[in-house]
Amino acid sequence: MSNTYAVIGDPIDHSLSPNIHNAAFRHLQLDHTYIAYRIPAGELTAGIEALKAIKIAGFNVTIPHKIEMMKLLDEMDTTCKVIGAVNTVLNDNGKLKGYNTDMIGFLDPIKKKNLTIEGSQVLLLGAGGAARAIITAMVKEKAGKITIANRTQENAKELTEFAKKIGGNVDVAPMQEVDELIADYKFIINSTSIGMKNEPSPISTENISKNSIVYDIVYQPMNTDLIKKSKENGATIIYGYEMLLSQAACSFEIWHKTEAPYDVMKKALLGGV
Predict the structure, then answer these.
(1) What positions does the domain SDH C-terminal occupy (predicted)?
(2) Which of 42, 87, 145, 210 is most deeply packed, by most CB within 10 A?
(3) What is the pLDDT of residues 146-160, one digit of tens each?
(4) Predicted TM-score of the model (pTM)
């Protein structure tokens, strides 16, 4: 096996993963490299063959390949099967093993802050790929009720069916109606990409208070409009970079079977955000 690791996707040049992993390698004096490797949509099979040819040791999978990649694995963990997506692959002597670290990556920052999910009301904005992992995590941790607010009802319905299948108590609310309901929720989670381009928060923040826990999975910019305004209202904040970091640490541990140097990775990331 080579000592090379990668992140694959398209676009990929903005990825912060090489920074995070290479800092960890330097710190642990490991002779490894982590690169960003662009594989356009529709070219995944050829791209993976190329990676296998250089005996890539492991790689992360990002948009648009997280679902498609499942077809090219030799085996996968149960989380991949439940969520229906893969984001971490280990090359075990030519056998590709798939993992999904989205759920652990999402939960880890909540647990680090000792916040209780069990029995709590959760408002989830968005019904895309990340939302499935978040719902899986919240159901596993026995959240009381989850409300999905999304612009397209079709996606929200699909996600609701998925959530019910895995035992979740879920309902759907139109995005424009959630503003009045916000005070009822302990967790308010943004799983959409709204905020990446510095646009205004997807919901009104005036009813967010010190009792709210606001978790925005957007990690660039670090302080989205939703985060800034929620902070002003005294809410507990969980940043997108915390999830990114936990996912990176989780991948690191899958590949190297050793504890990730979390603080070193955090420093590398925050230097780059």
Answers:
(1) 240-270
(2) 87
(3) 999 998 888 999 999
(4) 0.94
